[in-house]
Design goal:
This protein has helices spanning 6-15, 27-36, 47-50, 62-73, 94-106, 122-130, 146-149, 159-175, 187-196, 217-220, 242-254; strands at 19-23, 40-43, 80-84, 112-114, 135-140, 179-183, 201-204, 212-215. The chain is α/β, with parallel strands linked by helices. Bound molecules: 3-methyl-2-oxobutanoic acid.
Length: 268
């Protein structure tokens, strides 16, 4: 079985093959996702909300990410493992970022680290990449900035905001990011960014034209007890088992059946 790498993802973009991704926080779900054929497993800092019950991702620590990264890494044979740098573990300086990114790789099993922010994080991304740490960017709705946004709101609506998001995407790609998550933005904007960038885009609430899709696992299994976003779909409804739900998600993403119009934002 051939492992998924950042090069595999670039080839998939070029071939027009959709990339599939889900979050996981533990060994057993990681093994299930891997067996089902998912391309990327993301240990997201959503674990603060999903696993720990906090109202946001802000309380998540480096220790949490290292612990859950290592649990998930033990379950994977094929999928690429991306682990999030949590709030304030990389914004302070490039030196802080490389120490914590290194921990996610050496102790947490990450193949790639993910951080939030566009132009403002480009220097940090370049610093990490030039020192051998692959980076996934994350722009649009960046949940670590929830209080600055005044809530979990769609980003990039209107010409000025869209221009800012496009500049963020370009800055990350030029800094050497291997891929970028586009969260909660008009589908038209995400499609334009996807066309403009040489690296893959992974959408969540960003329309069907991104190179791939990611969802929070507990949202797509319908087991998160609080409100779920418009862009999430419960794949366990009508499926015989969690494994069947995950396989249905993968099949729907590959065939461009997910996300549908009801999961998609537009400019107005
Ligand atoms: O933390 C997370 O799970 C994420 C996804 C929502 C993309 O960043």
């Amino acid at each position: 079985m051939k492992s998924v790498t950042v090069l595999t993802l670039r080839d998939m973009k070029q071939a027009g093959e959709k990339i599939t991704s889900l979050t996981a926080y533990d060994y057993s779900f990681a093994a299930l996702l891997d067996r089902a054929g998912i391309d990327i497993v993301l240990v997201g800092d959503t674990l603060g909300m999903i696993v720990q019950g906090h109202a946001s991702t802000l309380p998540v620590t480096m220790e949490d990410m290292v612990y859950h990264g290592a649990c998930v890494a033990r379950g994977l044979e094929r999928a690429l493992l991306i682990v999030d740098l949590p709030f304030l573990s990389y914004q302070q300086s490039r030196e802080q970022a490389i120490v914590n990114a290194g921990r996610l790789m050496s102790e947490g099993g990450a193949h790639v680290v993910k951080l939030e922010g566009g132009e403002v994080m480009a220097d940090t991304v370049r610093f990490l990449v030039e020192r051998g740490i692959p980076v996934c960017g994350h722009i649009g709705l960046t949940p670590q900035s929830v209080h600055q946004f005044g809530g979990h709101r769609v980003q990039g609506r209107g010409d000025e905001a869209a221009g800012r998001v496009r500049r963020d995407a370009q800055a990350l790609a030029q800094a050497g990011a291997s891929l970028i998550v586009l969260e909660a933005m008009p589908a038209e904007l995400a499609a334009r960014i996807t066309e403009e960038l040489p690296i893959p885009t992974i959408g969540i609430g960003a329309g069907v034209d991104c190179d791939g899709q990611v969802l929070v696992l507990y949202d797509m299994l319908g087991i998160y007890p609080r409100r779920t976003p418009k862009f999430a779909k419960n794949f366990l409804q009508g499926a015989a088992s969690p494994e069947a739900a995950i396989k249905a998600y993968i099949a729907d993403v590959k065939a461009r059946r997910f996300p549908g119009p009801e999961h998609t934002f537009h400019n107005v």
